[in-house]
């Protein structure tokens, strides 16, 4: 359930920026370009955030440590007799 709270909050934030931002642009010769830039910025920021957030929820690979390194750490930390036969 706690996964939905940040998803909804951040999506609502970028939705407000993407919809409300263009409404605040003053009249001028570049009004359409500025509005487009605000909407595209909101979309890209939200897309980047959601990809990173969802990737952290279910990573495809975890840390990979070679067995040799694990055995060396075990020896240095003092619990080697249970892992390494001498």
Automatic annotation (TrEMBL):
One of its GO terms (molecular function) is proton-transporting ATPase activity, rotational mechanism. This is V-type proton ATPase subunit. It is found in: Endomembrane system; Membrane. It is a multi-pass membrane protein. V-ATPase is a heteromultimeric enzyme made up of two complexes: the ATP-hydrolytic V1 complex and the proton translocation V0 complex. The keyword DNA repair does not apply. InterPro entries: ATPase_V0-cplx_e1/e2_su, ATPase_V0-cplx_e1/e2_su_met. The chain crosses the membrane at residues 6-25, 37-55. GO terms for cellular component: endomembrane system; plasma membrane proton-transporting V-type ATPase complex; proton-transporting V-type ATPase, V0 domain. It holds the Pfam family ATP_synt_H. Belongs to the V-ATPase e1/e2 subunit family. Subunit of the V0 complex of vacuolar(H+)-ATPase (V-ATPase), a multisubunit enzyme composed of a peripheral complex (V1) that hydrolyzes ATP and a membrane integral complex (V0) that translocates protons. V-ATPase is responsible for acidifying and maintaining the pH of intracellular compartments and in some cell types, is targeted to the plasma membrane, where it is responsible for acidifying the extracellular environment. The keyword Transport applies. Keywords: Hydrogen ion transport, Ion transport, Membrane, Transmembrane, Transmembrane helix, Transport.
């Amino acid at each position: 359930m706690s996964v939905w709270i940040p998803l909804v909050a951040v999506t609502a934030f970028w939705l407000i920026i993407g919809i409300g931002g263009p409404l605040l642009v003053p009249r001028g010769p570049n009004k359409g370009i500025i509005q487009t830039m605000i909407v595209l910025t909101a979309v890209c920021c939200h897309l980047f955030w959601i990809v990173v957030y969802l990737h952290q929820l279910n990573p495809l690979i975890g840390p990979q440590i070679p067995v040799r390194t694990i055995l060396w750490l075990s020896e240095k930390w003092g619990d080697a007799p249970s892992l390494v036969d001498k």
